Amino acid sequence: MKLANERELDLTLILPCLNEENTVGASLDEAMRFINAYGIKAEMLVVDNGSTDRSAEEAIKHGAKVIPEPRRGYGRAIRTGIEQSRGGVLIMADCDTTYDLLHLEQFYFPLLRGECDMVIGDRFAGGIAKGAMPFLHRLGVPFLSWCGRVKLHTRVRDFHCGLRSFTRAAALTAELDTDGMEFATELIAAAVSSGLRISQTPTVLRRAVKDRRSKLHTFSDGFRHLRFILTYDRKEKEHGQKNDT
Q1: pTM for the complete prediction?
Q2: CATH homologous superfamily, domain 9-244
Q3: For 29-41, how does the pLDDT look when each residue is reduced to its tens digit (9 = 90+)?
């Protein structure tokens, strides 16, 4: 993956956004408090994936740089954010207030110290607030994560947690191609194939502070994850990476 600029900052926070005008400001304020508390040289990138509300205006008002990405898809938005990032550590999260962006220590400092290459949040270890995750997702996410662990030979427990971090070097190593929600699975697959060191940390999933329409489509998104897992060829990816060196 090509990144647009050489490293200039310590941290880049990447937030994909689609019609989140009621929550993006609160999410950015939390993240800014974390950044200021530790004096981190950072940037906050909101990747606007075709919002029709005032999400972009709210993001700018709360200190973020907005990157328009008209090509729809969660993965496409995250990949665009990675490409435009300038931080040595990249943290990706949702901007709907469901994740705690005030306490990002376990997503930042282990990478800064070189203890690992990627950190994945584990919502089932951290706790899921009442009403924060639909019942079908409570069944589907553990099942798909189990499928991912078996196929990829990894210990990652929560394949779909939207709060995760990785180093700039890891982003450069990963081969990322998907545009949809299956990107969450692909990122782990790419890390495993590249031999990256993956750490996990308990993460609380909160209920959004404002009522909102979920962007997830239970069955179609779940099938995209399962199809990716079943068709992913780790050996082919590893062979391609060796040929690129």
Answers
A1: 0.88
A2: Spore Coat Polysaccharide Biosynthesis Protein SpsA; Chain A (3.90.550.10)
A3: 999 999 999 999 9
